[in-house]
Amino acid sequence: MADIPGPYVQLTLTTSALNTAVSIERSTVGATGPWTMIQPVVPLLDGRAFYIDTTAPIANSGFTTFWYRFVTNVTELTQVISVIAANPAQAVWLTDPVRPWADLSMDTCSVSDGHVPGCSTPDPEFVWGGFTGTLDQVPDVGLHPILNAEHPADVFARRKFAEGSFVFFTRSLDAIDRVYELFTAGGPLMLRVAAEYGFDDQFIQPGTLAMSYMFKDQRRPERRWVVPFVVVDRPLGPIQGTDCNNWCAIEEAFPTMQSMADYPGTWADAMDGDVLCPDTPPELDGFGMGGFGSGPFGDGG
Known about the structure:
Elements: E1 2-6, E2 8-14, E3 21-27, E4 36-43, E5 48-53, E6 63-72, E7 78-86, E8 92-95, E9 104-106, E10 126-136, E11 140-144, E12 153-157, E13 163-170, H1 173-183, E14 189-192, E15 202-206, E16 210-213, E17 223-232, H2 247-253, H3 257-262, H4 267-271, H5 282-285
Antiparallel strand pairs: 1-2, 2-5, 3-4, 3-6, 6-7, 8-9, 8-14, 10-13, 11-12, 13-17, 14-15, 15-17, 16-17
């Protein structure tokens, strides 16, 4: 089963309780592949798995169809599902691969409108302003002088792709807080713009985030943001869980879904450590609400 609550796909798989793990592959061509491995091992609890694909190729306009293939480790069951994703509003998405709850969707109002109040008031809160300056492909070379030679030694490697910057606008105080929540973890983000930009979905490492006021009356909430970035490889993400409270410990303590259901408390109690680690300090005992960690990469739940 697949659900698309944002620019990512939530996948749920139910299979035989004999299986303890499943691999997940994705294809953008068809139900027979070719396949790209996106997660080699997803643990199963009582035959059930839940996975969020934050790199799904969801189009920025129109519809996109892609496929997932699941292969279980014991019964070797292969299951293929198709997903049709729609984003007719042509929104620009700036997403965090490990914290999808912090993602931002930005509208593409006309630049000539000045954005404020170029869009309907008070929506949208986030307005895409486009790329600024140039998109630079930096060389990776070293030129070394050679004694009594007319030309230097040229040591080179593959050119880097790429460095640039973009601008966006916010129109409320709450939007400023949401920008902080997205950027505060400090790691790479995924930038998705419409195909017309000629800039494929890319992981970027943002540089210094620059905010400026847009009016002399600085009590007004509108802000302009400039984000320099460098395109980077797909991140692996931080390690999740703790020595005391992690999914391996939960699976060992509760081998079936029914045994977990019969135990006092809720899933939130399990995630924040109250079930397995009741005597551990709160900052160390759990995953945090949402399953993304209580530490700097989590939501602090």
